[in-house]
Design the sequence.
């Protein structure tokens, strides 16, 4: 989007009925070996790959996301984890969607890459669709966490050689994200900085203020040391397929 002239953008929306992709991520610690921008960069990567397949336009990402939670993202307390208040995120995404719809985009895809965003993005999409409908726009929005589903065979390959796999609940800065970043942004991964700490054993509740002792020192909830570029390729290509399938189904 940012590389197009306005009239070219307009032509793509109005004449071609192009799908507009809005990546939404987070700026959040992912251990010592992955960059703070891991989530939003992966959302943008996914949006670009799927947009290429369906002739879509990738809008600028909403890089910041909802507050990191201890049991899913290692928590809000580490330096660099720069989150939005829920109200800000809802308002920000609402306004972006409302503007894109006002300019006659009828098909918008929101690509989410950060678990904590989920319900706030739902709220923003719901409100934006309502606002646009009141203005007489027939905009439809598809929202998807790109890693919503994983094929069990892929999971087996991901955790091959690990006796006691951490599972998706502890996959923050672990094998999945590390492998995907090795495939998509290899220059930004430093495998030599991965530490193998005991995994956290979270209680089934949260406390405020957070107790930093609940989270391993690195900030990762499981170790990414067995990650490879090949595992990353397997995961990324599967997710690109899932998102493409969803987009083609809803916006034939
Ligand atoms: Mn995240």
Sequence:
């Amino acid at each position: 989007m940012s590389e197009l002239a306005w009239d070219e953008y307009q032509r793509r929306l109005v004449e071609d009925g192009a799908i507009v992709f809005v990546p939404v991520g987070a700026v959040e610690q992912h251990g010592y070996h992955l960059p703070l921008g891991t989530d939003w960069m992966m959302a943008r990567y996914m949006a670009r790959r799927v947009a290429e397949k369906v002739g879509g336009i990738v809008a600028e990402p909403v890089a910041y996301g909802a507050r990191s939670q201890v049991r899913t993202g290692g928590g809000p307390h580490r330096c660099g984890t720069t989150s939005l208040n829920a109200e800000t995120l809802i308002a920000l995404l609402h306004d972006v969607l409302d503007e894109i719809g006002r300019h006659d985009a009828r098909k918008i895809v929101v690509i989410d890459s950060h678990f904590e965003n989920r319900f706030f993005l739902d709220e923003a999409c719901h409100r934006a669709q309502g606002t646009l409908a009141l203005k007489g726009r027939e905009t439809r929005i598809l929202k998807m966490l790109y890693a919503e589903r994983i094929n069990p065979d892929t999971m087996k390959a991901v955790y091959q050689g690990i006796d006691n796999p951490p599972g998706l609940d502890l996959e923050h800065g672990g094998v999945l994200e590390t492998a995907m970043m090795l495939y998509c942004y290899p220059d930004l991964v430093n495998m030599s900085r991965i530490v193998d700490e005991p995994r956290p054993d979270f209680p089934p509740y949260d406390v405020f203020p957070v107790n930093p002792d609940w989270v391993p020192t690195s900030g990762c909830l499981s170790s990414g040391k067995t990650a490879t570029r090949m595992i990353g390729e397997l995961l990324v290509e599967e997710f690109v397929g899932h998102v493409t399938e969803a987009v083609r189904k809803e916006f034939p």
Remarks:
- The longest helix spans residues 229-250.
- The two ends are 22 Å apart (CA to CA).
